[in-house]
Amino acid sequence: MSKSLIIIGGGIAGLSAGCYAQMNGFNSEIYEMHNITRGLCTAWQRKGFTFDVCVAWLVGSSPRSALHTLWEELGAVQGRQFINYEYFNHTLDEHGNRFISYTDPDKLREHMLSFRRKIKR
User: Fold this and answer.
1) How would DSSP label each residue in 2-35?
2) Rounded to whole angstroms, how far apart are CA atoms 52 and 49?
């Protein structure tokens, strides 16, 4: 009797599940409602605008990360150049306050605490 698995969604999670299923002796089928796989790693155009919601930050891209082994096993990081930005994004509210999502956890923590100090005054 063969083991089989049906996976709903062809994003990074579904594709990874399919790879691991087959690596462990399962037959797997991935069903995706879009005409291409990759989930949020795609871009599309609509009414003259390009919507690019591709992964801007791959968790585990650092060789020191525990997830890096998983990405290597799946073939996702070989030959890829990763750029480590100072921050992911920044948001400006209607009063001109800027929140910056720093990539450095210590810098992010300090930035978040600065808002807390402003609120307590």
Assistant:
1) --EEEEE--SHHHHHHHHHHHHTT-EEEEE-SSS
2) 10
How far apart CA 69 and CA 16 sit, in angstroms, is 13
Q: CA 67 to CA 46: how far, in whole Å?
A: 34
**CA 111 – CA 17 distance, rounded (Å):** 37
Single pTM value for the model: 0.56
DSSP-assigned letters across all residues of 91-111 = EE-TTS-EEEEESSHHHHHHH
Going residue by residue through the chain (121 aa), what tens digit of pLDDT does each one get? 689 999 999 888 899 999 999 999 999 999 998 888 777 677 778 898 877 766 666 777 788 888 888 888 888 888 888 877 888 888 888 888 899 999 888 999 999 998 776 665 5
Pairing of strands 43-46, 27-31: unpaired
Domain boundaries, the chain: 85-121
